[in-house]
Specification:
Helix content is about 75%, strand content about 0%. By secondary structure, it is mostly helical. The chain has one domain.
Length: about 160
């Protein structure tokens, strides 16, 4: 069989990705996760009386805990198959990554399995996050110094940082 004929046969039988279906699913489920997060924050603030500056922190802790438990039970992986990229909203996706890495190494123990397993994947995510934050902060600094972008007040900085300042 000639190479061109082989390539034609392969191309005729390859699975075509459903781009619109995947994008719609990611948008829908990513939005739902964001809605759940906002609802939790609202619940902590208005129903439980938590300080508005602390409520987002409680929401993040809740989402990390729930995502970790669902990963341990094998539910989050099934959710990820349906939600596509919408399932990796930064906080729940990170919790899923860390938990699944820890579960892979549990048979080798804490020191030789779980700890290195967690750092295997999450370490690279942390490095990329820190570096991108540094470079975007540097760009923002120079844009403000050159008068191209307005400086942010303390409250806006706090909100944009997710309440971590």
């Amino acid at each position: 069989m000639k190479t061109q004929e082989y390539e034609r046969i392969i191309k005729a039988h390859e699975v075509k990705p459903a781009y619109m279906k995947n994008a719609s699913s990611a948008f829908l489920f990513g939005g739902l996760l964001a809605l759940v997060g906002q609802s939790l924050s609202w619940l902590y603030e208005h129903t439980l009386g938590v300080d508005p500056e602390i409520a987002p922190t409680f929401m993040i802790i809740t989402l990390v805990f729930v995502a970790s438990v669902l990963t341990g039970l094998g539910v989050y992986d099934k959710f990820g198959q349906i939600a596509k990229l919408g399932g990796i909203i930064p906080i729940t996706g990170f919790a899923n990554t860390v938990t699944s890495s820890a579960l892979e190494g549990k048979s080798e123990g804490i020191v030789l399995g779980i700890a290195p397993g967690i750092l295997k994947i999450s370490g690279s995510i942390l490095v990329i996050s820190i570096l991108s934050g540094f470079f975007f902060g540097l760009i923002r600094y120079f844009l403000v110094e050159m008068g191209i972008a307005p400086a942010l007040d303390h409250y806006t900085s706090y909100v944009l940082s997710g309440g971590l300042l």
